[in-house]
Design brief:
This protein has about 270 residues and is of the alpha/beta class. It has two domains: about 130 residues, Leucine Dehydrogenase, chain A, domain 1 (Rossmann fold, 3-Layer(aba) Sandwich), CATH 3.40.50.10860; about 140 residues, Rossmann fold (3-Layer(aba) Sandwich). The chain is built from ten helices and twelve strands. The strands form two sheets. Strands 2-1-3-5-6-4 form a six-stranded mixed sheet, sandwiched between helices. Strand 7, helix 6 and strand 8 form a beta-alpha-beta unit. The longest helix has 16 residues. It starts with a strand and ends in a 5-residue tail after the last helix. The protein binds 2'-monophosphoadenosine-5'-diphosphate (ATR). The site of 2'-monophosphoadenosine-5'-diphosphate has 14 residues, from helix 6. 2'-monophosphoadenosine-5'-diphosphate (ATR) binds next to helix 6.
C-alpha cells in the first residue's frame, strides 16, 4: 500500500513541499504520496488525529502549527526541544516522534550547497524567534569563532545566549550594539521580510567577502538582501536551499533514503532581483 505523508499549515496553498517530496519520491523510487492539508485554526490535533486514522505515516508542519506539533508529540528530539517547536512528525503505533530539521537544513545549505564553512567564522544571527532558536544548536555544532544574536527585544536574544552559553562563544545583544562590528556570515532569521520590512541592522556589519543569507524564500531581493548588496556584499542567498534541505532530512528520517536535492533547488529557485 502506498504510504501517506503530508504538510499541514494554514494557509497551505503556496507550499512547495508537495512538489519537493514528489521529486524526491520519484528520483529515489519510493512508493508514497504527499499531500497538503489546510489545518483549521485551533484544530491542529483533530486534523492530525484524522490523518493518523487513515494510516498517515508522517507530517511536515509549517506556520502556525509548529508549537502545536511539539505539544502533540509523545517524544521530542533534542533539536525540537531546543527550538521549542517541531517541523516534522513520524507516527509509529502509539508513538508520535517530533523533530526540527530547519536548523540542520540551513547549515547543510550553507556549508554544502553554498560552500561556506561556519567553523572559525564570525557569525551574526538577526532575530530570536522560532526560526533563530531552531538554528542555534546546529550553528554551534559548526564551531564558529563567535555567534552574535541581535534582536529588537534584547531579552529574547539574551535568552538564546543563555541556551547556547555552555557550548561556545555566544553573545546576545540589541541592534545598536552592532555598530563597529563586522561578520563573515549574516543570517536574517527575523520575520521582517515577510512584511517587506528591514531589521535595524547597521550596513557596516557585512565584512568583505561576507555571505548574507535570508531565511525567508521566494521573495526576491528583500530589504535585508538589498541592504547587504548596497553595502558591497556579492554573496547573497535566500532560504530556498534551506527549505529543500530540511525536506530532505525529513524524507531520510521517514524513508531511510537521503534524496539528492539539486534538481528540487533548481526547480523552485527564484532569481534574487
Ligand atoms: P519566527 O517563528 O518566524 O521566528 P517569531 O517567533 O514571531 O517568528 O519571531 C519573529 C522574529 O522576528 C523576532 O525575533 C522579532 O523580533 P522581536 O522578538 O523583537 O519581536 C523579529 N522581527 C519581526 N519583525 C521585525 C522588524 N520589523 N524588525 C526587527 N525584528 C523583527
Amino acid at each position: 500500500m502506498t504510504d501517506r505523508y503530508a504538510v499541514i499549515g494554514n494557509p497551505i496553498g503556496f507550499s512547495k513541499s508537495p512538489l519537493i517530496h514528489a521529486m524526491f519520491a520519484q528520483a529515489s523510487g519510493q512508493d508514497m504520496e504527499y499531500t497538503a492539508i489546510e489545518g483549521p485554526p485551533g484544530g491542529f490535533a483533530g486534523a492530525v488525529d484524522v490523518f493518523c486514522a487513515v494510516g498517515g505515516k508522517g507530517l511536515n508542519i509549517t506556520a502556525p502549527f509548529k508549537l502545536d506539533a511539539f505539544a502533540y508529540a509523545t517524544e521530542r528530539s533534542e533539536r525540537a526541544q531546543l527550538a521549542g517547536a517541531a517541523n516534522a512528525m513520524k507516527f509509529d503505533g502509539e508513538r508520535v516522534l517530533a523533530e526540527n530539521f530547519d536548523g540542520v537544513g540551513l547549515v547543510r545549505d550553507v556549508t554544502h550547497n553554498l560552500g561556506c564553512q561556519l567553523q572559525g567564522k564570525r557569525v551574526l544571527l538577526l532575530g530570536a524567534g522560532g526560526a533563530a532558536r531552531g538554528a542555534l544548536l546546529p550553528f554551534l555544532a559548526q564551531a564558529p569563532a563567535e555567534l552574535v544574536i541581535a534582536n529588537r527585544t534584547v531579552a529574547r536574544a539574551l535568552e538564546l545566549q543563555a541556551m547556547g552559553a555552555a557550548r561556545a562563544n555566544v553573545r546576545g545583544c540589541g541592534y545598536s550594539d552592532l555598530t563597529g562590528q563586522t561578520f563573515d556570515v549574516v543570517f536574517n532569521a527575523t520575520s521582517a521580510s515577510l512584511r517587506a520590512e528591514l531589521p535595524p541592522v547597521p550596513a557596516s556589519v557585512f565584512a568583505p567577502g561576507c555571505l548574507a543569507y535570508e531565511l525567508a524564500y521566494g521573495k526576491g531581493l528583500t530589504p535585508f538582501l538589498r541592504l547587504a548588496q548596497n553595502a558591497g556584499t556579492r554573496r547573497l542567498a535566500d532560504g530556498v536551499g534551506m527549505l529543500v534541505e530540511q525536506a530532505a532530512e525529513a524524507f531520510a528520517w521517514w524513508r531511510g533514503v537521503r534524496p539528492d536535492t539539486r534538481a528540487a533547488i533548481e526547480r523552485i529557485t527564484i532569481a534574487l532581483v
